[in-house]
Amino acid sequence: MSNPRERQRMFDVFTSHGFSDVTVFGEAFGAGIQKGVRYVPGDEVLFRAFDIMVAENFVTYDLFSALCDEIALPRVPEIWRGEPSLAAFDALLEQDSAEAKRNGVIAEGNVSEGVVVRSNPLLRDVFGQWLIIKHKSDKFAEVVKRAPGNKVDVGPAQAFAEMFVVEGRVHNALGRLRDRGVAVENDMADMRVLVPEVIADLLKECSTEWQQAIAAGMSDKQIRAAVTKNLGTVYRHMLIARVT
């Protein structure tokens, strides 16, 4: 909300529902943020809400939609509802971005990054974590997809690095760095800030697989070294592709 009147309207709507401790989750997108997909026709940066939490719980998606509409707060497009299955989720990938189309951007190959999948109402797993997943297009995947039986004879640390240090993860790491105002020079000097950013992401998102590599006999230091080496290779290829 950009002005006091809009903020007051948001406050009034939440208060009318009896909500006091409210957090709105969303994402900025547009010029200079995401790479590989164009969401807006010009240089503007837009915002879309994707969830609302009251106290420690998320509201249902239907209530989220109703609240956003009352507030006139733009939200991410809902593109499908139905029984969950991998086939259904895969069918949503490799399609032109619904958000881009909504903003008047129609271009061949302007494929969306992927979809966020959630239940309605939102549920938790046995560990108390919210059940939300990202199902990404191959172009933006953060994990290498290998054909069944296509095993490569490398050590656990290198196998971990090759599996999880991919262009999609590096693109996202660069976006987070830019969001925080960290200077990105688009050359190999960026490794200074990319390495800790990617390792922090892996420790958060792939902690189970990291520990499995340790259980297989790798040290934490060996895994970090393999990640750094593979990241250097991936980022070098990305920079070459950028200038060719």
From TrEMBL:
InterPro entries: RNA_ligase_dom_REL/Rnl2. Residues 19-120 form the RNA ligase domain. Pfam families: RNA_ligase. One of its GO terms (molecular function) is ligase activity. Keywords: Ligase. This is RNA ligase family protein. It comes from Pendulispora rubella.
